[in-house]
Amino acid sequence: MNFSMSGKPRGLILSICFATCCAAFPPVLCLLSGPAYALSEIKREELPSPVTPSADDDTSPPGSTVPMPDPIGTPPSTSQPTAPAEAEPDSPPSGAASPRIDPDAPLPEVLYDLSKLPEPVRRMHDLIVEACKSGDIEKLRPLVGKGDTMTQLSLTDIDGDAIAFLKGLSGDPEGQEILAIMEEVLNAGYVHLDAGTPEELYVWPYFFALPLDKLDAKQRVELFKIVTAGDFDDMKQFGAYIFYRVGITPAGQWAFFVAGD
């Protein structure tokens, strides 16, 4: 993915993401060009080759490897061999960060007034924007958190340090491009989803929850502040906005900052 010097995404390779999503493989995160491409690839561990002890190392007596009969008078074992455990299927990515498009549902209200946000949500929003404007990506570290409450930064697991991962998504080594994208996303309108449920969220930008074919002319102008017209055409074929989005819980926890399907 290439971006202009102003932070606007240019030449977003959403066509690659779309092609991947339409293939017969499970959906994966949209890949970014440059260093982000490598960081977003699923890493596979190389298993060590099994070590077979040499004949010289075998200290067992001759014939000890042959199964011996039970002693006379010993009842035969009635235990059944334990069946091998079935491999657990890979867990699907968190649904909260995946596109929410229901063409038959009423359109959610698009909001711009930050004063309507609960205080914890507005505070987290403002802290993220302030960190972005500072140009120092390290200022995001206390906001991202760690452990079970750490902000989701990918639709797949990430390796290593969260801030290093964000820098890897950026076209520049200091991560200022990704800060510019994050700020622009948070300057867009937002939607309030699943009110009154455990999944309640405030999400920027509102395109996350609107069918792209229902955007009016004004809304398409707002979308083009974040993506290009070519990206828009690719996303229309996919059926949803799949560029970066930010989610914050009513309690003010930064839930996610991800791109992809």
Structure description:
The chain has 261 residues and is an alpha+beta fold. It has one domain (2-41, 109-258). It is 27% helix and 8% strand. A 4-stranded antiparallel β-sheet has the order 3-4-5-6. A hairpin with a 5-residue loop joins β5 and β6. The longest helix is centred in the middle third of the chain and has 16 residues, at 119-134. The model is unreliable at 1-94 (pLDDT under 50).
Strand content: 5-15%
Record the strand order, biggest sheet: 3-4-5-6
Helix content: 25-40%
Termini gap: 16 Å
Largest sheet: 4 strands, antiparallel
Give the overall form: globular
Order of helices and strands: EEHHHHHHEEHHEE
What is the gyration radius calculated from CA atoms?
25 Å
| Spans where pLDDT lies below 50 across 5 or more residues | 1-94
Supply the helix-strand structural class. Answer: alpha+beta
Overall residue-averaged pLDDT value: 75
The total number of structural domains is 1
Kindly summarize this structure in a few lines.
By secondary structure, the chain is an alpha+beta fold. It contains eight helices and six strands.
List the helices and strands and how they pair.
Blueprint: E1 2-3, E2 9-10, H1 14-22, H2 35-40, H3 119-134, H4 141-144, H5 162-169, H6 176-186, E3 191-193, E4 201-204, H7 217-223, H8 229-238, E5 245-248, E6 254-258
